[in-house]
Amino acid sequence: MKTVIVGANHAGIAAANTLLDTYPDQDVVMIDRNTNLSYLGCGTALWVGRQIDSVDKLFYTNKDAFEAKGAQVFMETEVTSIDFDAHLVSCRPRTGADFTIKYDKLVLATGSLPIAPKLPGHDLAGINFLKLFQEGQEVDRQISDDSVEDVAVVGAGYIGVEIAEAAKRRGKNVRIFDIAPTSLASYYDPEFAALMDERLAQGGIECHFGEAVCAYMGDETGHVRSITTEQGSYPADLVVNAIGFIPNNALGRDHLELFDNGAYLVDRHQQTSDPDVYAIGDCATVYSNALHATTYIALATNAVRSGIVAGHNIGGTPLESIGVQGSNAISVMGLNLCSTGLSVRAAEKAGLEVLYTDFEDLQRPAFMRENAQVKIRIVYERGSRRVVGAQLASEYDVSMAIHMFSLAIEEGVTIDKLKLLDIFFLPHFNQPYNYITMAALGAE
């Protein structure tokens, strides 16, 4: 059985490893247009901000590792078209002649593309995106230039907030813009996002939320020098666009069924509307256990799980995805936020009627020298009372608690089940009246 995998980052790598490690009858071909694979883009801001020593360990595998397992790997190779009827993939390498590969099963792991609005001045030099390793290299090169004094970040999601911190660490004047009224609006309710907004401002980052960018202005050399919004103009020697991503569906959009946002619509086996084609990672849909519906959540963790599921199904082991919660976290300027499932705002937008319960307290008893405040919100459906989301904020690392809420959402646990949950107490770790149970006890 020949399986061709188009795209060799997190999802494609997971599918390839599953097939190569588990199913010896598989003939695996991997194709990617980049020069490298397995880049952990979440480490870009840490590298640019000099919080890690080098980029070397941001790559966790390479072409040689897959060739040693018996895979054919074609890097720097563009897939120009796919003949789904004939099961043929047409390829164009950077050097050499074009060629085709026949497949029995095809895996599309083409990922996503950064949103790039064609605003006036969008083609000026000094305007950057952050997804590929090479883009991270270019942003780092520009930030290292002493003539770059003012940095504008457009988009205050995770990537935007993290790169804003990184630029500030490098001694730049930093402004961050977003059309939403707060940072991180896609992940957190305003009461939690406001904590990050405050931390960014305290750290010297100028926040412009609820302010849409209209244009980029350049100098006579064609280099960006300022950014214009609905409310004013601001200096910018370097712009990082981090508005978000859209699914990369170019190869299959005319053949495969698509979701509302253009992602390939897949079932719980990662199978598309073509039974011989699977789609995984950021180009495909996921099943949300909070919504009990198909949705789109672009996360590396989801990509890896989807690759594993597709690999086993192609290999001959029927395996259904258990669904996802979209668990995520961010750590910027000493403030840690993590969430899973739906915020109140996201639930209401999806038409889900929810309630929520908040609680705030010290992580440990007050007599402990090392301590920090913890803020928690648990979101639950009004009728069924099942937990559909949770958010946590603290200077302390409370991230492990979010995994419990992720499982609670997956299993349909109600808010009432958490009220007398058996949680241990020891002053080194927590309070006798734990913030999780206290929040649950405060629910209607």
UniProtKB/TrEMBL annotation:
Catalysed reactions, semicolon-separated: 2 NADH + O2 + 2 H(+) = 2 NAD(+) + 2 H2O
SUPFAM superfamilies for this protein: FAD/NAD(P)-binding domain, FAD/NAD-linked reductases, dimerisation (C-terminal) domain
One matching Pfam family: Pyr_redox_2
UniProt GO molecular function: oxidoreductase activity
UniProt key word NAD: yes
Cited NCBIfam families: NOXase_Strep
Family of the protein in this entry: Belongs to the class-III pyridine nucleotide-disulfide oxidoreductase family.
Protein known as: NADH oxidase
